[in-house]
Amino acid sequence: MVVAHHRSDSLTAHTARRAAARLEAAGYRIDLLDLHAEGFDPRMNVEDQPDWGDREKAYSDETHAHMRRILDAEVVVAVFPVYWQSVPAVLKGWIDRVWNYGFAYGRSKPRLAGKRMLWLALAGATADDPVAESMQSVLEANLSDGIAYYCGFSRSTVGLLLDAEERPQRIDAEGNLLVGAPVAGAEREAQYGDFDRRARKFVEEFLAEEPVAV
Ligand SMILES: Cc1cc2nc3c(=O)[nH]c(=O)nc-3n(C[C@H](O)[C@H](O)[C@H](O)COP(=O)(O)O)c2cc1C
After folding, report:
1. Residue 171's pLDDT band (boundaries 50, 70, 90)?
2. What is the CA(109)–ligand 1 centre distance, in A?
3. What is the mean pLDDT of residues 160-183?
4. With a 6 A CB cut-off, is 5 part of the ligand 1 pocket?
5. Which end of the chain is more exposed for a tag (fewer CB within 10 A), N or C?
6. At residue 170, does pLDDT exceed 90?
7. What proportion of the chain, given as a percentage, has pLDDT over 90?
8. Ligand 1 centroid vs 58 CA: distance in angstroms?
9. In whole angstroms, what is the distance from residue 119 CA to residue 68 CA?
């Protein structure tokens, strides 16, 4: 499980903890990779830059350690806040540096073949925001088609968790961001209860999928 958030008291971290507990209850052993807590540097560097003429290039020790963790995993679950209809920079940099040429792609038999991926994406947009539908498509095109399937994953699911903010936001006709009053009390409990249920449903559905024979 890869978590990309700078605060351990965030809704993202809370969602990751609950998802990990559900996976553990289903018999999975969790390798928790908290990118911020582990101090992962998302910046590409010379050692980890792919050499298109050498798919056996020895990347940095740090990158190799991450590659081993991915190889050991049957499923990869990424939990992150949606930033600009994409993943946060720290998660993008982890993919850039670690899901590298010769390892994740560039071989007739990709080393990640057969693994399954769940992207739990927390988004501030409200469920009735017209952007929600296109955000789902953008994330699927980017994360599932552009990354996971490209790297040989047999399944990739984007679980988009809208309404991740306690203050509803929308853009008015002039382009101003209108931030509503924070919900409180019973209403807030209900909002978070609903949020947790939606997150759990994504994990349950993911668990219910049949493993794919490779
Ligand atoms: C830099 C940045 C970009 C964001 N971009 C989007 C976006 O494109 N769509 C969206 O719905 N929310 C966007 N948000 C809102 C976050 O998704 C939201 O704050 C987060 O999911 C809340 O979870 P957290 O409390 O765990 O951070 C953005 C927030 C930040 C800080």
Report:
1. confident
2. 36
3. 88
4. yes
5. C
6. no
7. 83
8. 36
9. 20
| Cβ neighbours, 10 Å, residue 142 | 17
Question: Would the pLDDT of 211 be above 80?
Answer: no
3-state secondary structure of 77: strand
Contact 20, 33 (CB under 8 A): no
* CB of 129 closer than 6 angstroms to any ligand 1 atom: no
Q: Is 81 in the pocket of ligand 1 (CB under 6 A)?
A: yes
Q: How far apart are CA 82 and CA 125, in angstroms?
A: 10
- Tell me the whole-structure pTM to 2 decimals: 0.95
How far apart are the C-alpha atoms of 129 and 192, rounded to whole Å? 19
* C-alpha closest to that of 91 among 102, 78, 104, 105: 78
User: How many A from CA of 164 to the centre of ligand 1?
Assistant: 8
